[in-house]
Design a protein that fits this description.
Number of domains of chain A: 1
Number of domains of chain B: 3
Structural class of chain B: alpha+beta
Organism (chain A): Puniceibacterium sediminis
CATH architecture of the largest domain in chain B: 2-Layer Sandwich
Radius of gyration of chain A: 14 Å
Keywords (chain A): Phosphoprotein
Oligomer: heterodimer
CATH class of chain A: Alpha Beta
Helix content of chain A: 25-40%
Strand content of chain A: 15-25%
Strand content of chain B: 25-35%
Membrane topology (chain B): Multi-pass membrane protein
Protein name (chain A): Response regulator receiver domain-containing protein
Number of strands of chain B: 19
Order of helices and strands of chain A: EHEHEHEHEH
Radius of gyration of chain B: 45 Å
GO biological process, one term (chain A): phosphorelay signal transduction system
Chain lengths: 140, 486
């Protein structure tokens, strides 16, 4: 069995609420944590106890792009950097969830290892299902 | 053989009209050529006075001039440099060139006169001048020493001189002051190596109007060899209109560039700022449907209220954007409104009101209401406050935005200050440039450019100060009309 911890990173309360409801409804995932900036998210992320060996731990991150302070790209770059030395989950699935459909943003998202998808607001149920399969790529 | 007889033979075989006159002006001898030129029968002029050959206009002065000649008799051409006319028997005026030579006969000095009919030459010249006067280009003919020997009417008009004013004046009169010293040198070197060519090779040329104004011109130089020596014909084309047209074109192009920027801004705003609230509404409505099925009416009611708020704000935003797009660079209507309320509305619009982690501190030093272009002021404040919001410094415990106002000497000044990350020194000069995005937090790079343009248009100023790591402070001031004061 695996346990998926969801991180919702967005400075807009409304966007977090809509995403939260959508994710919670699916029943696919475990705890849903919210952060309203990149820094707060990083703090939250690395204060998790990732050391427990079982069950398998998965972090599903819904990341906004335009935020005050660190933006979505900078936050995930910082995450990747810190994971080189710090303890993290078994698997990380980061999804950009944003209202920007900017091609250059999509292109830049491809440069990040942890990013597995790019979705524009609002997500629908199919999107969530699709994201769920991304969390378990081998179908386990 | 009398003295006269000595000359008679020579006179008769000379093809040049010739005359011999005494000190008193009596015609002693005139050949048939001379008689013919003045339309007299052969011998008819003998014993008459030379004054009959002088036109009425100068006849009364002629004896005096003649006496002067005999006092200091020298060989010279008569009327040198002047137009000289004679009158025929029938009263016709003819253009002449006369040669005078003193001839000694004992105590007396006689004058030997050779006359050359220059009527044809004159009429050639006149025809040429007529043709040149008909030309649209200005023409100035200059002699070897830089003196003006001819100007056509177009040139007189171009340089602001009256008919004939420029004749015999130095050509430097038509040269801009800064070239007064060097121009005669150019003339000198052109005279020694002259060929038809454009003047000033590739440089912008200017001529000097009588009033000192500089006229942009194109000049072509052509060497002309004449009996009076080497001349240079300058053909001058007035480029004022062309230059003005080019400047107008450049203005137009700048204007279009600015309009393009506005259009891009409009497109960006439409795709981003307008799509985001629709996405929120769509998300909330999906949730409402689900909640309805579960009879969770309280949640539905709460979310529908939010939807109403969002759609109301968006509708207003669309209106505002359309207003700007339509107005372009023109004035928006002047409205009377509360600046403080407007700032609070913008704040709610940008932060969503309830969820903001940023504090707004308002210090209003003016008294509401104010009268100015509401649409433009909103655009300015939205951009400045949105920037202040975006560049928050997460390292600080609180993110604060101070908006303060002041009314002084007819100007409304507003300052938007934040304690965010500030602007690095190296980026300061680029902040207001179009399409310049300083970092990932930057929007489309048009906001401040648009703000500055609007403030410029309204006759205001926009300045900023910033220390990296401490925050930024943008201030603008706009003139409020006298009538708008409360």
């Amino acid at each position: 069995m695996s346990e998926v911890t969801v991180f919702l990173v967005n400075d807009e309360k409304l966007d977090r609420y809509v995403a939260y409801r959508r994710i919670a409804k699916s029943g696919f995932f475990g705890e849903i944590l919210e952060a309203l900036s990149g820094d707060l998210f990083l703090e939250q992320f690395f204060s998790q106890d990732w050391k427990a060996v079982s069950p398998e731990r998965v972090a599903l991150i819904f990341m906004d792009i335009n935020m005050p302070g660190l933006n979505g790209f900078e936050t995930l770059e910082e995450l990747e950097r810190r994971l080189e030395t710090e303890c993290g989950p078994d698997r990380i699935v980061a999804i950009f969830l944003t209202s920007s459909n900017n091609p250059s943003d999509r292109e830049r998202a491809k440069g990040l290892k942890v990013v597995k998808g790019y979705f524009t607001n609002p997500m629908n149920d199919e999107d969530v299902e699709h994201i769920h399969t991304l969390c378990f790529p081998k179908g386990d | 053989m009398s003295f006269v007889e000595k000359y008679r033979l020579a006179f008769e075989i000379s093809p040049v009209p010739m005359l011999l006159a005494s000190m008193s002006g009596e015609i002693l001898l005139a050949n048939s050529g001379f008689h013919e030129l003045f339309e007299y029968d052969d011998g008819e002029l003998l014993n008459q006075t030379v004054d009959v050959l002088v036109p009425d206009a100068v006849r009364s002065q002629h004896p005096e001039l003649r006496d002067a000649y005999y006092r200091v008799p020298t060989k010279r051409s008569m009327g040198a440099g002047r137009e000289l006319n004679g009158v025929t028997k029938s009263g016709k005026i003819i253009a002449l060139e006369l040669g005078l030579e003193p001839v000694k006969n004992g105590d007396e000095t006689w004058a030997l006169v050779a006359a050359i009919d220059i009527r044809q030459r004159k009429s050639h010249e006149e025809r040429m001048h007529l043709a040149m006067n008909a030309a649209a280009s200005a023409m100035v003919m200059v002699n070897e020493s830089g003196g003006i020997v001819f100007v056509n009417m177009a040139a007189e008009k171009l340089f602001g001189y009256a008919n004939g004013d420029l004749l015999n004046r130095p050509v430097e009169l038509l040269v801009p002051d800064e070239f007064h010293r060097s121009h005669p040198v150019y003339v000198g070197s052109y005279m020694t190596a002259s060929e038809t060519r454009r003047m000033g090779a590739g440089r912008d040329l200017f001529a000097r109007h009588r009033n000192g104004a500089k006229i942009p011109v194109g000049i072509t130089l052509t060497p002309v060899d004449s009996p009076d020596g080497k001349l240079v014909m300058s053909t001058i084309i007035d480029l004022s209109e062309r230059v003005a047209a080019m400047e107008a074109l450049a203005d137009k192009s700048r204007e279009l560039e600015a309009l393009n920027v506005e259009l891009s801004h409009f497109a960006y705003s439409a795709s981003h700022d307008l799509k985001a609230p629709l996405s929120s509404i769509a998300g909330l409505l999906a949730i409402c449907l689900e909640d309805l099925e579960e009879n969770n009416h309280d949640e539905v009611r709460k979310n529908l209220k939010t939807i109403l708020e969002i759609s109301g704000r968006s509708a207003k935003k669309v209106e505002g954007i359309l207003k700007i797009a339509r107005a372009g660079h023109e004035k928006l209507p002047i409205e009377r409104f509360s600046l403080e309320e407007t700032i609070r509305e913008i704040w709610i619009d940008l932060t969503g009101g309830t969820n903001s982690d940023t504090q707004l501190v308002l210090v209003m030093g003016h008294s509401d209401p104010v009268s100015t272009e509401l649409g433009t002021l909103k655009l300015i404040l939205e951009n400045l406050i949105s920037n202040a919001l975006r560049y928050g410094d997460p390292a600080k415990p609180t993110h604060e935005i101070h908006v303060s106002s002041l009314f002084e000497a007819g100007f409304l000044s507003v300052t938007v200050a934040d304690n965010g990350i500030g602007i690095p020194e190296k980026n300061k000069s680029e902040v207001m440039q179009m399409f310049r995005r300083i970092n990932e937090k930057s929007g489309d790079g048009l906001g401040l450019a648009l703000v500055r343009k609007q403030i410029d248009r309204m006759g205001g100023t926009l300045t900023f100060t910033s220390t990296e790591g401490e925050g930024a402070e943008f201030s603008f001031s706009l003139p409020l009309s006298e009538a708008s004061r409360v």
